[in-house]
Give the backbone structure.
Amino acid sequence: MFVTVLNYEGQMLQHSRPTIDAEDVKAVTQVLQSGYIAQGLLVEEFENRFRKFLGVEWAVATNSGSSALHLSLLALGVGRGDEVILPSYVCVAVLNAVRYVGAEAKLCDICEEDLNLRVRDIKKEINKRTRAIILTHTFGQPADIEEFLGLGIPIIEDCAQSLGAKYKGKRIGSLGAISIFSFYATKMIATGHGGMVASDSQILAQKIRDFREFDERQNYKVRYNYKMSDIEASLGLSQIAKLDTFISKRKEIAQIYDEAFSGYGMEIPHRKERADHIFYRYVIKVESGLDKIITRLARKGIEAKRPIYKPLHQYLVLDKRNFPNTEEAYNSLLSLPIYPSLGRDKAEFIARTVGDLVFGNDLSRTPA
Ligand SMILES: *Cc1c(COP(=O)(O)O)cnc(C)c1O
């Protein structure tokens, strides 16, 4: 049986959690009392707020990041017989979206430094049937999107983990043909479930809106009920107002981890000069025994995880030799608790516990 011993003042320190305050509660309560709880004016307001934040022309709210991806592929006209390039080191929602439209998923390995797709790797996968590239900005660190824009293939930016991050001073999600976001409970901002599609193209945005609303239409075609509710939008509005604070808090925690782990002589997460890492995840590399470390940390009241549950090529039973960096990341990366409400003392406790466990108990190397 799995026994958890709670060590940090009797609490289990969760791996991730939403940051909800009294303002959020008030916003949602007001919607509930208003009697207008489905998609309405607040969804429109959230969309407007969101597109201004990002600096794009159009934003369409959805009920999840998965449906945002599905509608993006539909709007680009991707379907049967087409191929879509995506990383193997990503959550399974991305593969699902490609399969929803009947297209073929061409998986690619990642760059060992930023854990994102790299142009020189995907070039081998491009052919006449390639209709889109889903470029994820993994764990809050932007991919080198500029290098992808010249390929002549529509880029869908998957910003589900990176809302607010910047690449060369511009918000990610404002550079590709379309970008998608998720407001799942533990993402950068939370609405429970929820998502957004953003684009500068009015044509694409109109198509997406058209697919999202099925009722009271003159002509019939298959459409979807992918709408966001005003309950969720009210939370989205009050959360996005706090995004900058959320990002600074995450960076503060990352700094605490950096300083502690440097004291143990260990490698800290890679940062690019041209991009702003917002630390949706803080991942460290452990040489061996990842599962054992996860279990030991749980016994000490710390919930740590593999940041990607399982790479996609393992589900599709593809040759692992083609995905050496993904395999390496899967076998060695450990994701530690990081979220705005995690206080400094808790972060320091986690840093010490992880440092001692992974890098030995030598107190002389423990930072003061
Ligand atoms: C969370 C996530 C999604 C899916 O979003 P949902 O809102 O959970 O459907 C897609 N891509 C990435 C990279 C994600 O992290």
User: Anything to note?
Assistant: The two ends are 37 Å apart (CA to CA).
